[in-house]
Amino acid sequence: MDWQQVRGQFPVTNEYLYFDLANKCALPLWATETIAAYIQKQQRSGGDKAEWFATLEEARTNFARLINATLDEIAFTKNTSEGLNIAAACLPLKAGDTVLLNEYEHPNNVYCWLNLERKGIKVKWIPTQGGQVTLDSLDEVMDDSVRVVSIASTTYAPGNQNDIRAISEYCRKRNIFTVVDAVQSVGTLQVDVKELGVDVLCTSGHKSLFCPHGVGIVYIRKEMLDRMHPVYVARAGMGMGAQIEYSNITYKLDQAHSARKFEIGNYNYLGLTVLNESVKFLLNLGMENVENRILELNSYLIAKLVQAGFPVVSPHTGPLRSAIVCFEAADARALHGFLMENKAITTLRRDTIRISLGIYNNESDIDAFVELASRWKQSVSTSGSSPQ
Ligand SMILES: Cc1ncc(COP(=O)(O)O)c(C=O)c1O
Fold first, then answer.
1. Per-residue pLDDT, 250
2. Quick check: is 384 in a domain?
3. For ligand 1, is residue 349 a contact (CB within 6 Å)?
4. What residue owns the CA closest to ligand 1's atom 16?
5. Which of 81, 110, 209, 223 is deepest in the core (most CB within 10 A)?
6. Rounded mean pLDDT of the chain?
7. Domain containing 171: what range?
8. pTM exceeds 0.90
């Protein structure tokens, strides 16, 4: 695999130590080229809607391949949060039911469930060590009222993976729905929905799928489609075909027997055109190769941080590692500011510096980053202030 050539697709690497994919991507050349061609065509001619639809369906096919879903199980959304809200609003839940959440969920996998409390549905927290949901931790809060477990396959911080396959199997036996926030997994790690056995899985395009903001995807397991009814409906999800071209329309709420019934109105055609190119790029690289490279960089980074005396709070070894590595510092906010001033882009999350790796990063980026962070640490410990 020629990772140097992959890096060449990412101009951001010429100027920055870019470790912020878990927040948002720096667009690759293929995205800027795709966007420019799309905009120019729309400017010249208004664009070609039939072509946009064809590309959108190609994106659906390619994305389904990426996560081993079938076409009918994929709906396009705006982002992960919309997918999670679809799950919360459309799963067959009733007053008295309980939803279990990990304390380390992103806020948007919390609010959509808290919003159900007015319907008498309770939220309960799974007690975890650093975000790690185990079957034992589920046992601790399990009772007959539990109907949903909604958790991240990879937490946004500290970036541990959860064993979704084991959790969904545990849930299935108890007639509990499994909803997965997979935005910190899809695009950097292998995700196979059939193997995971989950009911709903949500992600966004603007992180490791290298899209502009405003593209998301929700997977809904085929067997769940008849049990989940959309709150919002529009023509895209109906079987009305080309009737709009005629004056004589017969209205019938004839919903698609697919996840498409959750799609509303016109699409983010531009974003989906980029999504298609990004997913093709990843499929060409092969997600196994991508994951191996990400985990190779993860090991290298953790070893360097530990060597430099930074406490890493993410898993250090083993299969629960991801593209995210978080570490503590005496004053994480001050260090974050220093890093940003020096063109090393990370995010502050849960009082730690969150580094997120992408396929464009290399060992030299990591060396330069750790050297910079060490310079700050050294200066703060000797003079009490950031280096000049
Ligand atoms: C784990 C996780 N879930 C959900 C979100 C929210 O994503 P979006 O804004 O695309 O809905 C994020 C974004 O940072 C995230 O890291």
1. 83
2. no
3. no
4. 156
5. 209
6. 96
7. 30-283
8. yes
